[in-house]
Design goal:
Strand content: 15-25%
Number of helices: 13
CATH topology of the largest domain: Jelly Rolls
Order of helices and strands: EHEEEEEEEEHEHHHHHHHHHHH
């Protein structure tokens, strides 16, 4: 099943509710109080290539003015307003978004949004998925997508949220590919035709990702084995993943992602066995690379998980921060 977390300000003492919500988002947004009574309910799901959030927010403002282009976040956010009002402004490049509208935010650009009794479905999407759908992410920041052109995308987001708890892991790659085609339907026909090359490139990268994820336990997994398994030459693989550091770096990243998620999910497996499960040569190699990436050892990370309960604010914040590293 899909990984998830939730947050509800009503379950916390009034004096703790807003500080806890601000900490939940402190890896990606500066959160401040807006007008009126504060309320925050969040449900979140990690799907392949995208993160989905259902949020009921009021009396709160999110800002990335100070941190845009400095914190490493580099993905696109599409937010469907189900009810209420989301207020933008100059930084966000739109004035307001109302029920039935989808507003778009580029996390590499400054933004500031206020929520007034708003019920919003938000998809945080890797930039490569957006580029596969429309060729480029340029000119998306601040765009407000309206009916009737946004209807299929809005229905898809609603369906993902409605079924989020039940979506099985092996179904998620197909949903990401469906998202690409549905998002592409928002564009004019002439624009869609020009995106085919980007889409084919994404599908080739996705085939490599699938092979890597399916073979993480193999310590011999390498550029050579990926080349043989996918039928792509080493030079073709180099061109596909040049911007992300190459195939070897991708293999290492996916292994570390798998370990982090296993620890988040409290899997009762020793670190030596976990190292073998994810293809590391031994526990020492796992520990060294995990520390280089997350600045904490696997044992310390596990201890931190053990001190929090599932879905408490500390647990939710840790999961959210980890998920964001996968699409940022």
């Amino acid at each position: 099943m899909s990984e998830r977390f939730s947050f509800n300000s009503h379950t916390l003492p009034e004096e703790d509710a807003f500080p806890a919500y601000a900490r939940l988002y402190d890896k990606g947004s500066d959160v401040s109080r807006g007008d009126g009574e504060f309320r925050a309910e969040v449900r979140a799901w990690r799907l392949e290539g995208l993160l989905l959030f259902e949020r009921r927010l009021s009396g709160v403002v999110h800002s990335r003015i100070a941190r845009a282009a400095t914190d490493g976040f580099d993905h696109i956010v599409l937010s469907l307003v189900l009810s209420g009002r989301v207020v933008g402004g100059e930084a966000s490049a739109f004035d307001e978004a109302l029920a039935g509208e989808i507003y778009v935010t580029d996390t590499a650009r400054p933004s500031r949004t206020g929520f007034e009794s708003a019920h919003v479905l938000t998809a945080s999407v890797s930039r490569e998925i957006i580029e596969a759908a429309r060729g480029t992410a340029a000119s998306l920041h601040g765009r407000v997508l309206k009916a009737p052109r946004n209807l299929m995308l809005a229905d898809f987001l609603r369906s993902l949220a409605r079924n989020g708890d039940m979506i099985e892991t092996d179904a998620q790659p197909a949903l990401s590919r469906a998202f690409i085609h549905i998002l592409g339907s928002v564009e004019e026909r002439s624009a869609r035709a020009s995106n085919e090359a980007r889409r084919r490139e994404y599908l080739r990268r996705d085939a490599v990702e699938r092979m890597i994820i399916d073979n993480l336990a193999d310590p011999a997994l390498s550029v050579a084995t990926v080349s043989r398994g996918t039928g792509m030459s080493r030079s073709a693989l180099y061109r596909l993943f040049e911007d992300s550091g190459g195939v070897a770096r991708l293999i290492q990243k996916r292994r570390l992602d798998g370990v982090r998620r296993a620890l988040d999910n409290r899997e009762p497996v020793g670190l030596a066995d976990m190292a073998r499960t994810f293809g590391f040569s031994d526990e020492a190699q796992l520990g060294r690379l995990f520390f280089e990436t997350y600045e904490v050892s696997p044992a310390e990370y596990r201890e931190g998980v053990a001190t929090s309960e599932p879905d408490d604010p500390v647990d939710s914040r840790r999961r959210w921060a980890g998920w964001m590293t996968e699409i940022a």
